Amino acid sequence: MEALSRNFFLYLSKNKSLNKMAKRYGLKFGASKVVGGIDFDRTVSVIKNLNNRGLCTTVDHLGEFVNSVDETRERTAQEIHTIQTIAKEKLDAQTSVKLTSLGLDIDHHLVFENMRNILTEAQKHGVFVTIDMEDEVRCQGTLDIFKGLKTEFDNVGTVIQSYLYRSRDDINDLKKLLPNLRLVKGAYKESADVAYPDKKDVDDNLKQMIKDHLTNGNYTAVASHDDQIINFTKQFAEENNISRDLFEFQMLYGMRTQTQLDLVKQGYKMRVYVPYGNDWYGYFMRRLAERPANVAFVAKGMFRS
Ligand code: FDA
């Protein structure tokens, strides 16, 4: 039943006409529970609300796979607008970007140019930018670009996925750059040639990566909704006298809200990943596919938004 529901929502996530329709009609079917707004200006009040509850944020303009140079420039300008709005509204917010939306599949020089423009503006306003990690075929390219940018900018980080066999080596290779890394399990469908097929191995590897990166003394964002991972991080930090200034937890907007608030109450830094934008439909369907429980909570809001 669970697999059926997952496949159904994954199928819906790829439906082009529904996607088109969704863009025309704005956030529907309870999507506002997991998406901040259809543009950044409409997401500001959501972020202020989270900030008022002690939660910091990172915001993500939805939409990947941009195919033309002009579109990448448009995305860059929109990202800069977001950064300027964060500064103007004094939001406790960072941004997250996907390099495919800035030209990763077109030309690496173009991505560098777009990212330099974004990071220069972000640096001016003290905003940190995380480069999300996409599928395995784009991992090396993303890391190469990150390494190049990191030599010029301090306000950039990236993501390492524990399902990939290569990831502990990547952490070791990056450590001399003193990187701020978000550590996750990984969200894409990958083959057993490059990624652990068993969940237990993915979980164990994430724990190892958290240990490695914290022991290296580098800032660690543990992005997981999994109590087992959260408790492991707390205990490892406690037993090894690792300051709470050296790590934070991250979760998606609308997921485990009470747990997010509990972590704040316990004195941990908790950052909420808030997606926004017109391209909300695929993201929303993927969240429904991930967890059948999400369907129930969204169904309640279906007729309200
Ligand atoms: P997982 O899905 O493995 O679930 C483990 C357990 O946690 C469940 O059995 C349940 O007990 C609990 N749980 C999970 N979700 C829950 C919920 N909603 N409510 C209650 N309990 C729940 N991926 C990627 O490839 N590139 C990236 O750049 C990012 N970026 C990113 C940022 C942030 C802030 C987050 C939170 C995640 C990502 N990811 C990502 C996604 C990540 O790789 C992963 O796919 C998801 O976080 C799911 O894995 P979890 O560790 O959260 O729990």
UniProtKB/TrEMBL annotation:
Catalytic activity: L-proline + a quinone = (S)-1-pyrroline-5-carboxylate + a quinol + H(+)
Record-listed E.C. numbers: 1.5.5.2
Residue ranges of every copy of the Proline dehydrogenase domain listed in the record: 46-299
Cofactor field: FAD
Pathway listed: Amino-acid degradation; L-proline degradation into L-glutamate; L-glutamate from L-proline: step 1/2
Keywords, alphabetical: FAD, Flavoprotein, Nucleotide-binding, Oxidoreductase, Proline metabolism
A Pfam family: Pro_dh
Top-tier EC class: oxidoreductase
UniProt-recorded name of the protein: proline dehydrogenase
